[in-house]
Amino acid sequence: MSRRLLYILFAVTGTLAYLYFAEKIQYLAIPMGISATALLFTWILQHPIDAWWAKKSPYKLGRNMRSLYERHPFFANLTEEEKEVFGQRVGLFFADKDFISMNNDDVPPDLMHVAAYYAIMLAWNQTEPLMKEYDRIVFYPHPFLTPHYGEQVHTYEVEHVDGTIILAADQFLAGYMQPGVYYQTGLHAAAEVFRALYMSEDDIKFDSMIWTTLEKISGVTKEVVEKHTGMAQEDPWPVVVHHMFSYPEKFKGLAPELYVDTNRVLGITTE
């Protein structure tokens, strides 16, 4: 909604400015000032405007995006009423976030919807489910470098100070579409954000064999996860969450207590 208003106000302000300065139509000074002021305030208040509009006109998932979500058991197992709520939260999520493409193009809808999916799924039972403190999601087309990690090429990054999530689009989408084949970097990043926003240090404890347990569940070593993400993984939590959703039956069979604890922290019913 705010983007439409910005386009309209920009066109109106530009037209009035042309007529005032080029055609010397002096009485347009006040309308031009009003239009420019409205343009400025609309720019500043983009997120509140979009959030208001999202609540006034709840977002509904289109057929293609709903099919995209149905690929994953969490969404597929929701009731129809819950799927409606999920879709409404997607609209609110979009209104709350800036999606940025490092290609200088618009971020494709499938990337936006998958980013929303992971966040809304993990925060499904939280009182504040939109992860508002993290309001920028940046996509590179491929693994990237950032100043924080020097020459270390990586596929995701969570900047907790400025509330930014950075993702390599190719790895991000491949993980969602083929979770048993590719690592889900988007889920991993969302789990990092979940820990930062919703967890305390005492919520879950891992024993000294946690990485061995995770390797048994997935067949993937910690070193392979680090190679795929391009990041050292000292905290097992994001990998635990990743494996619980990627290999639920093996996880429940090989680590039943950890399975219950992880579901408890996420607020998901295990029965």
Compute the separation of the termini in Å. Answer: 41 Å
Spatial shape: elongated
Cα radius of gyration in angstroms: 22 Å
Proportion in β-strands? 5-15%
Main structural class: alpha/beta
**What's the arrangement of strands in the largest beta sheet?**
1-2-4-3
How many domains is the backbone divided into? 2
Low-confidence stretches: none
Quaternary structure annotation:
single chain
Topology as a string of helices (H) and strands (E): HHHHHHEHEEEHHHHHHH
Instruction: Report the mean per-residue pLDDT as an integer.
Output: 88
Main beta-sheet strand count, sense and barrel state = 4 strands, mixed
How many strand segments? 4
Helix content: 55-70%
Molecular structure report:
By secondary structure, the protein is an alpha/beta fold. The protein folds into two domains: 2-44; 50-266, no CATH class. Helix content is 58%, strand content 7%. It has helices at residues 2-21, 29-44, 46-56, 63-70, 73-76, 80-96, 109-122, 169-177, 185-198, 210-218, 222-229, 237-246, 248-254, 256-266; strands at 98-101, 136-140, 156-159, 164-168. Helix 7 (109-122) links the parallel strand 1 (98-101) and strand 2. Helix 6 crosses helix 7 and helix 12 packs across helix 13 (248-254). The longest helix is centred in the first third of the chain and has 20 residues, at 2-21. The mean pLDDT is 88.
